[in-house]
Write a structure and sequence with these properties.
Blueprint (H helix, E strand, L loop, with lengths): L1 H9 L1 H26 L7 H23 L4
Helix pairs in contact: 1-2, 2-3
């Protein structure tokens, strides 16, 4: 979130590169998680994907809450 605000202040192109970079990092994390659990007998893919989604939501909500300004 901080790098998005910094990039937005610099230029539109920098903002989109920062946004795309963050999206690429999240996609890479998902690919690594799915490839790790793909053929493991004791691993539930549903549980892995749900934990990934809830972790992302918690991280994003935490970042948004830090930047929220109540007036």
């Amino acid at each position: 979130m901080v790098w998005l605000l910094w990039a937005r202040g610099r230029s539109t192109e920098a903002f989109w590169w920062a946004f795309g970079g963050g999206t690429a990092l999240r996609a890479l994390g998902l690919v690594i998680l799915v490839s790790w659990g793909w053929r493991r007998a004791g691993v539930s893919m549903e549980a892995l994907l749900l934990s990934y989604v809830f972790t992302l939501l918690a991280m994003l909500l935490t970042l948004e809450y830090r930047n929220l300004r109540l007036e």
